[in-house]
Design brief:
Length: 156
């Protein structure tokens, strides 16, 4: 299924963060990458446990839930601790749900807490100079550029 919103939002480094949080752009991108994985393939928890066990050269049964959570953070490049404690707490909730095998609920938690217009709505086209138009929510909309049909859709 084609993602809703801006067609670049799954990889755009400038994807617009939700209001009300103090989060570095790179950390926000990493959290959104995690959210997107939950919406697509999900987290292969058994694979993560095997990876941790092999890396630490220990039996897989000894891998703790905390090590799984840390490994998932690391896989997505999410810092050990985020600058906004509220974001960190929400992320920890989501990781807890992943360890419980509830990827769907973890995804819902992140969509609910961290909405982004980039994943919800296709941006309108705007003139960026005399010859070129572009579509990005970061650009000011132009009165002469009619907004395309509303493509709002549930975020994924
Ligand atoms: S609307 Fe702009 S900022 Fe948002 S994902 Fe698309 S290109 Fe990036």
């Amino acid at each position: 299924m084609r993602p809703s919103g801006c067609r670049f939002h799954t990889r755009c480094p400038k994807v617009i963060p939700p209001d009300g949080y103090d989060l570095e752009q790179s950390a926000w991108r990493a959290v959104l990458d995690f959210r997107q994985r939950l919406a697509s393939a999900g987290i292969d928890q058994a694979g993560v446990r095997e990876f941790v066990a092999a890396s630490a050269d220990v039996p897989v049964e000894t891998v703790t839930d905390g090590q799984v959570r840390d490994a998932v953070r690391e896989e997505f490049g999410i810092p050990d601790s985020l600058s906004d404690p509220e974001v960190d707490a929400i992320l920890r909730d989501a990781l807890e749900l992943v360890v419980d095998g509830a990827d769907d609920r973890a995804h819902e938690r992140l969509v609910e807490a961290f909405p982004t217009v980039c994943a919800r709505e296709a941006p309108p086209e705007t003139w960026v100079d005399d010859d070129h138009r572009a579509a990005c929510h970061l650009l000011e909309s132009d009165a002469d550029s009619p907004r395309p049909a509303d493509t709002s859709a549930p975020e994924r």
